[in-house]
Design goal:
8 helices; four-stranded antiparallel beta sheet; two-stranded antiparallel ribbon; 6 strands
Length: 225
C-alpha cells in the first residue's frame, strides 16, 4: 500500500504532459480573461466571472487527460456536473457563451492540441472584442409607477419625463389591489445629468406617494449609428 502511495508522487512523462497542459491552460485563461476585460472596458462586469474564465481552462486541461480514454470516468464526471447547483443571478447570453468558450479552450488544450487551442482562443477573443465594441450599451432602465385607478396615466407624467429623460415608452400596464391601483411599466433612458432622487421625488408628488421602482435590466445592446 505504501508503494502505491509513493508511486502516485512519481513524476513521469504523463505527469509532465499534464503539468504542461495546465500551464498552457493558464496562459489561455489569461488571454481569455484579458479579452473579456478589454471588450467590457467602461462597462459593468463581474470580477468573479473574470476569475472563472481565467481558471476554467486550467481545470479542464487537467481533467480531460484522466477521462479522455475511459468512458466510465467520463460518465462519472458528467454525473458530478449534473449535481452542481449554481446559486447566482442570471447572466446574459454573451457571458454564457464566454463560459462555454473558456471550457472548450481548456478541453482542446487538455487533449494536447495546443496549436488549435490557442488559435481558438485568439480568434474568438478578437472577434468577441470587435463585436462587443461595435455595439454600444443603451442606458435603458425600467420604471414602474403605481397610480390610483381614477388617474389618467397617458399624459400625467409627460412633463416630468421630458425634463429628465431622453427616451421613454410604456412597456406594460397591470392592475393591482382588486383593480383600485394601476402599475405602469416604462422603458426609460435618463439624461446624463439626471438626478435620480429629484426625478423620483417629482413622480411621487404626482402619483400620490404610491410605489415607484426604478430597475436596471440586463444591458440592452443596440447598433452604433
Amino acid at each position: 500500500m505504501i508503494m502505491n502511495i509513493t508511486d502516485g508522487f512519481l513524476v513521469n512523462a504523463e505527469s509532465m504532459s499534464i503539468l504542461f497542459s495546465m500551464v498552457m491552460g493558464l496562459i489561455a485563461g489569461g488571454i481569455i480573461a484579458c479579452g473579456y476585460i478589454v471588450a467590457n472596458t467602461g462597462r459593468k462586469y463581474s470580477k468573479n466571472f473574470v476569475i472563472t474564465v481565467l481558471l476554467l481552462p486550467v481545470i479542464m486541461a487537467i481533467i480531460i487527460p484522466f477521462i479522455a480514454t475511459d468512458l466510465k470516468k467520463t460518465l462519472s464526471l458528467a454525473g458530478v456536473f449534473a449535481l452542481v447547483r449554481f446559486r447566482s443571478i442570471p447572466g446574459d447570453s454573451k457571458d454564457i457563451l464566454y463560459t462555454f468558450f473558456a471550457a472548450a479552450a481548456g478541453l482542446v488544450i487538455g487533449l494536447n492540441s495546443y496549436f488549435i487551442g490557442f488559435v481558438l482562443v485568439i480568434v474568438v477573443s478578437i472577434l468577441y472584442i470587435l463585436l462587443t465594441r461595435m455595439w454600444k450599451v443603451e442606458n435603458k432602465q425600467i420604471l414602474k409607477i403605481t397610480i390610483p385607478e381614477d388617474m389618467n396615466y397617458k399624459d400625467v407624467f409627460t412633463d416630468i419625463f421630458e425634463k429628465y429623460l431622453v427616451k421613454y415608452g410604456v412597456k406594460n400596464v397591470k392592475t393591482s389591489n382588486m383593480g383600485t391601483l394601476f402599475t405602469i411599466s416604462y422603458w426609460v433612458q435618463p439624461k446624463k445629468d439626471c438626478d435620480t432622487k429629484v426625478f423620483i421625488d417629482e413622480l411621487r408628488t404626482r402619483n400620490g406617494n404610491l410605489n415607484i421602482i426604478l430597475e436596471n435590466p440586463d444591458d440592452q445592446l443596440v447598433p452604433v449609428l
